[in-house]
Design a protein that fits this description.
The complex is a heterodimer of chains A (about 325) and B (about 250). Chain A has one domain (about 5-300): Rossmann fold (3-Layer(aba) Sandwich). Chain A is built from eleven helices and 14 strands. Chain A has helices spanning about 10-20, 40-45, 60-70, 90-110, 150-165, 190-195, 215-225, 245-250, 260-275, 280, 295-300, and strands at about 5, 30-35, 50-55, 75-80, 115-120, 135, 170-180, 180, 200, 210, 230-235, 240, 255, 290. The radius of gyration of chain B is 17 Å and the shape is globular. Classes of the chains: A alpha/beta (about 325), B alpha/beta (about 250).
């Protein structure tokens, strides 16, 4: 398979994926879709790449893409990564985070040339309560708290929407639940957390966090896109550190504060500075560690984390 | 001391070489001077490959676990960093959970232990669990119901089990009563007879490794098979405890 459609192509991860695919001579075409016009130059790095600016929150645009450009280009594989990068809530965020994936998957099943669907999901969909294994594999329970914020609910709903079609569709479907990528524009909560000069953490807790580099994430997605493997894969990164060490290496000052103060402190930060980090989303993992177990990805996709995360870069 | 650390100095469970060194330093005085630990048969512990060390548990505070782990780290050659399996409420305790994580302890979820054994590590279990550590003084050195999880893991990982008897810990801090309070998810709050542990003498005795995967024939998930394996280990530990009690000169010497 050598003709790809990539949504969310203008993110750092999208660009890394495109670079990775273009390294292979058998890659004939990459149809890159993003929301920004100005970023087109960063992805059209090769004559094999065609960039389309599209608002994928509109179902009509998705239909036009799938039965217009994607049919013209005889696309065989979709890598779906489109989601809101920030902590947005409301109908429009859900339209991109969840409905876009549902629509594109449904249309992919009717498409004349598409054979494979790869969905980039998030390690954050897993439950991080202290009563569960600290090594997280594909069978780990999902975070189905009834009052989970929309950010989490959307990711789980999109992930499960894709899971739902496994075995019921002629497409080969793979879901990559990836470790957090500490880079701008990737939707990383931790990235936003580390933008403050002072980072609060709950007193008495210093959980272990696993982070993936943009390069490794791009490579994992490319491996999935180029294979026929089906199912769910947890994708860890090469960097495993306690939170205090992540803060220190990023050049920030870590300040432990009693747990009950975390919510008001970060609530005030969000309200005043309009930042994305939401303590409600991160409460579990700021207390209890959890590292993704990449055995299945290693055995089936041949993915091993290689590149450690670079800290201290805004 | 080698563990999978991916170059950042921390493994998937949060352990680090610095944490292990800190753990050794923190237990040094207790091990050498306070409890004057006497170790017998450490050469029974295989030098490599997956292995489960199964010991009795007692004394209100898990100091027996600290002493056993310190003994393993100090006296195995080459040093084998132990992976003590802790009760699942412990990681939730502030400071304590972080400390345990750095020194190499793992949350007692099956997947964690499986992974440690797959990596060829030495796992330390206390199959009595909290009922062992909190049993009344009148039941000292009588093993509580022995769980079967370690047998199942040993069978599936084809790991030998080294039975261990710890004599001395029962008298360090007798439990008088248990309050039905559950701070941070703890199973109870103990009322103890002494404000601090008494300077009892610890004796740690290692038995010969038992390869249950060679002795027991059948489905490793069969409850009857697991019960038979657990009974075998429990009987071995009880016999070693009884022997240790017979031969010791006294509680404090």
């Amino acid at each position: 398979m050598s003709r790809y459609l990539i949504t969310g192509a203008t993110t750092a991860v999208g660009e890394a994926l495109i670079r990775e695919l273009l390294q292979h001579d058998d890659t004939e075409r990459v149809l890159a879709v993003g929301a920004e016009e100005v970023r087109a130059r960063s992805v059209e790095i090769d004559g094999r790449v065609r960039y389309l600016r599209l608002d994928l929150t509109r179902e009509r645009n998705i239909r036009r893409l799938m039965f217009g450009a994607a049919r013209e280009e005889r696309v065989e594989v979709i890598v779906d990564m489109a989601s809101h990068r920030g902590l947005r809530s409301g109908r429009r965020a859900r339209a991109l985070n969840v409905l876009e994936t549902r629509h594109i998957l449904r249309l992919a099943e009717e498409h004349p040339t598409l054979r494979r669907f790869v969905y980039r999901s998030y390690g954050e969909v897993y439950d991080r309560s202290g009563l569960l294994p600290s090594v997280i594999d594909e069978t780990h329970p999902l975070d189905l708290r009834p009052r989970a914020p929309q950010w989490v609910r959307d990711r789980i709903e999109a992930d499960l929407s894709v899971c739902q079609r496994m075995g019921m569709s002629d497409l080969t479907i793979a879901i990559l639940r990836c470790a957090e990528c500490l880079a701008p524009g990737t939707g990383s909560q931790l990235y936003d957390y580390l933008r403050s000069q002072v980072c609060f953490r709950p007193l008495g807790y210093d959980p272990v966090i696993n982070l993936i580099s943009v390069e490794d994430l791009g490579r994992a997605l490319a491996l999935a896109a180029r294979s026929d493997a089906r199912g769910i894969f947890t994708v860890p990164g090469a960097t495993t550190l306690p939170l205090s060490e992540v803060v220190r290496r990023h050049g920030r000052r870590g300040v432990p504060v009693p747990g009950p103060l975390m919510m008001p402190l970060y609530g005030a930060r969000r309200a005043v500075l309009r930042t994305d980090f939401d303590y409600r989303i991160n409460r579990g993992r700021l207390h209890m560690g959890g590292v993704l177990d990449g055995r299945r990805a290693a055995e089936i996709l041949g993915y091993e984390p290689e590149v450690t995360v670079t800290f201290g870069v805004d | 001391m080698v563990r999978e650390t991916r170059g950042d100095g921390y493994d998937s469970f949060g352990a680090s070489a610095e944490g292990a060194a800190l753990g050794l330093a923190a237990t040094r005085l207790l091990y050498e001077r306070y409890f004057r630990v006497q170790s017998e048969g450490i050469d029974q512990v295989p030098a490599s490959g997956p292995v489960i060390v199964a010991a009795n548990h007692s004394g209100s505070l898990p100091l027996d676990a600290f002493m056993l782990c310190a003994d393993l780290l100090r006296n195995t050659d080459p040093p084998r960093p132990p992976r003590p399996v802790i009760d699942r409420f412990v990681p939730k305790l502030p400071f304590v959970g972080t400390f345990f994580s750095r020194v190499g302890a793992i949350d007692g979820a099956r997947r964690n232990v499986e992974l440690a054994l797959e990596r060829g590590e030495l796992v330390v279990v206390f199959p009595e669990g909290t009922p062992g550590i909190g049993k009344p003084f009148s039941e000292r050195y009588r093993l509580q119901p022995w769980r079967v999880g370690h047998v199942e893991l040993a069978l599936s990982a084809r790991a030998p089990i080294v039975p261990v008897a710890i004599v001395g810990a029962e008298e360090q801090m007798p439990t008088l009563a248990k309050l039905d309070l559950h701070p941070f998810g703890a199973p109870y709050l103990p009322i103890v007879a002494t404000p601090f542990p008494l300077p009892v003498k610890y004796r740690i005795r290692y038995g010969a490794p038992i390869a249950l995967h060679e002795e027991l024939d059948g489905d490793p998930r069969d409850p009857a098979l697991l019960a038979a394996g657990a009974a075998r280990i429990k009987a071995e530990v009880q016999a070693m405890i009884d022997e240790g009690l017979r031969t010791r000169a006294g509680v404090f010497r």
